[in-house]
Amino acid sequence: MLSFISLGSGSSGNSALVYTEKTFVLVDAGISAKQLRIKLKDVGVDPDKLDGILITHEHGDHTKGLEVFCRKLDVPIYCNAVTRESLSSNVSSAEIWRIIECGDPFSVGDIVINGFPVMHDAVDPMGFIFEKNGKKLGFVSDVGHVTEVMKSTLSLVDTIFIEANYDETLLQNDERRPWSLKQRIASRHGHLSNKQVAELVGSIAGGGMLQRVVLAHLSADCNSPEIAKAEIILALSMKGISGVEVICAKRDQVSGPFMVECSDEKDAQFYEGGDYSQGEFILFD
Ligand SMILES: [Zn+2]
Ligand SMILES: [Zn+2]
Fold first, then answer.
1. What would the pLDDT profile of 65-113 be if each residue is shown by its tens digit?
2. Are strands 52-54 and 77-79 parallel, antiparallel or unpaired?
3. Three-class SS state of 139
4. Can you give the residue ranges of every domain in the chain?
5. What is this structure's pTM?
6. Which residues surround ligand 2, an ion (CB under 5 A)?
7. Rounded distance, CA 162 to CA 193, Å?
8. Superfamily assignment of 2-273 in CATH?
């Protein structure tokens, strides 16, 4: 099986766990080390069992817990060379870096991972495809603009985890954010709006492979799960596409598990019941 759990999602901190029966990969460590340990324990995963930590980009809401979390762990950190450079001053205790590149697939345990470039105001941000037994999870965090590379890469996934940061009208009308910040958020190197995600999902779901969309990194002030979900569902129905599940990852709570691939009927039943023996999982729609 290939599954994932969001441990936290939003500007206050992002981290997710992608896993199989044998392999546990943490994606980003943007919540405190203490919270990371608590949340991993809650879902039944011992931090010592992690096989790798994968970093999408260096921004604090994706890396602020990394240094302390890694101090006592012997776990490799996977990121590209310039991201490592920008993190190395803060993450001095981590000695096990694995440098990765876009388009050069690598394995962590029984998961094959391939990175691809995304547009965002970080030094070299990446999205990832996680694959097991031909089933694919597309994982995209902060991104300001959907490129053709991104669209064609994601057109082959079964499940997509992607940020839907803001509703355009709510951002425009927000009185607390200065104009310059709004410009940054809405720019090609900022974040994705619900509308941009809806267009992307509408175009990639046409191929018939996409089963599930998990919306992430929702702004607390300029978006809501109801608005984001409705916009994506509308885009799908306008294209006559049905059967794609749309879910929003919660900000401070664990969300999932979301199963991407399952070769074992028993595991599938566990998932349906939302009752994993190792920990308490939250299933919601
Ligand atoms: Zn960012
Ligand atoms: Zn972020």
1. 999 999 889 899 999 999 999 998 877 765 689 999 999 999 999 999 9
2. parallel
3. strand
4. 2-273
5. 0.91
6. 61, 142
7. 11
8. Ribonuclease Z/Hydroxyacylglutathione hydrolase-like (3.60.15.10)
